[in-house]
Amino acid sequence: MRLTKNIVAWTIVSAVVGIMMSVQYHDVLLGGAAIWSSLPDVAGVHARLEAVTDYNTSLSHEISHMDSLIVRLQNNALRKGGSVAEMQRQINAAKVLSGSAKVIGEGVTVTISDGQIRGANLQQFLTHDWDLRSVVNELFAAGAQAVAVNQARITATTAIFCVGPVVNVGGQRLGSPFVVQAIGNPSVLFAALSLPGGVLNVLKEVNRGLDISTPIMKRRLVLPAYETPITPMTVGGNALSATTK
Amino acid sequence: MKRRQVITGLAVTLVLGLMLGLETHIDHTTSSNSMGSYLAQSQALTTAMQLSPKLQRRLAQDEKQLQALQATASNVSHGLAMMRQELVSLQKSAGLTSLQGPGLVITINYDPNLPVIPSLRYVDEAQQLQMVINLLAASGAKGFAINGQRLVTTTAIRSVNGLSAPAGPFSGTVQVGGVPIQAPYTIRVVGPVQSLNNMLQVEAIAQQFAILDQSFIVHAYRQYNGVSLPAYDGALPFSYITEVGA
Asked: Measured between CA atoms, how close is B121 to chain A, in angstroms?
């Protein structure tokens, strides 16, 4: 009887001591001073992440506010006409063509995903850089005015190439599925992608077997601006010379 | 025997207590303090820190643009000068200005002296050109022209015959931005010479063209005005697209 009581008492004491030890350990760890230096400073990283995220959010808000002011002033300038309006039109066109502006318009989307593995040749069922390049090129050939793959806007100097398990599009690493969005005449772009024997048809063929959605015409597509600044016009620290027409 | 059982029981209870305490405390203090979460948060932190300078640069560009517009509203001539600066910078990025700089001039031509491999001979020439342009872009090219046609964002390089049609070497069916071009093909590229050259060598592009009976000759120009590209003078994208907010 007495032994049973002792066992119960010691059991409770052991459990409580165990809980206290673990709580103490975590309190110290979460306070940023790990008991052992090899332990990760979770709280520290978390706090820094929150701070940087807050900073980025405030920058984004500021950019958004400034963008609305810019657009208002641009529209005013265009309404007034004259040389300012003409220059503003040229600026807008250059921004759209260079990919440095977020743009809106009608167009098409198509989603390209890796296919189902059905044989030994795994490579055939993966989406490769040249597959995406072919689709992007075909869209521009059909008159697309802007194209993006997932969130990567295509520009004149955008390279699309495979890097291990992902595809690098203009410096952004993208994985399947790849959503290709193009702004332009929707019916023409749709027809170009739906062409029998055309680029999508080839990718769907049995020896490739990629999973490709039917192209969808959209009344409104919003494409992001090129995420990083357009490649600086310098080579080896020297500015490149440019001449306006 | 009983004593040993008691000690074992107490040890097990202690461990259970530790586990219980850890589990409950983790849930009550933070939802993510495992090593996996630490790595995920570190990765998120790296991404967030990489985004900050991009946003700062974008903000600086916006400030400059806003200043130009505000200046235009109060003093037209001063504002116009600032807008012109911005326009030149944007036109440069868009390919609307001619461009000079160090770079490469690559000539691709039919060479009957190269070994003929009939099964490989018939390839889509446009895709070959696209491949070269893509490799050069990946190695830091700032601008390109093929047979005098400046490449811009909307430029397609396309064989008119179609992807599945049998195209022969130099069948004269390539269009660059809608303009037909014929062999020999001359690619002019402005960019870091060493990096561009390295990429072509690593990818053995000359050898790939050689088995298609095509010579691939590269000349490097390291001077600041070594390679000249013409300005793009084709249509601008206006009809279906507008800047968000405009």
From this structure: 20
Chain A neighbors of B22, CB-CB under 8 A? 22, 25-26
- At B150 the three-state DSSP class reads strand
Query: Tokens 């084709």, residue?
Result: B234
Q: Yes or no: say if B175 and B181 are a contact pair by the CB < 8 Å rule.
A: yes
Residues sharing a CB contact under 8 Å with residue B129, sequence separation 6 or more, in sequence order: B108, B146, B157, B174, B176, B185, B187
* pTM value > 0.80: no
For A130, the closest chain B residue by CA position comes to B131
How far is residue B91 from each of residues A32, A154, A194, measured CA to CA in Å? 51, 17, 34
Tens of pLDDT, residues B183-226: 899 999 999 999 999 999 999 999 988 888 889 999 999 998 89
Q: How many residues does chain A have?
A: 245
pLDDT in tens, B119-132: 665 677 888 899 99
First to last CA, chain B: 86
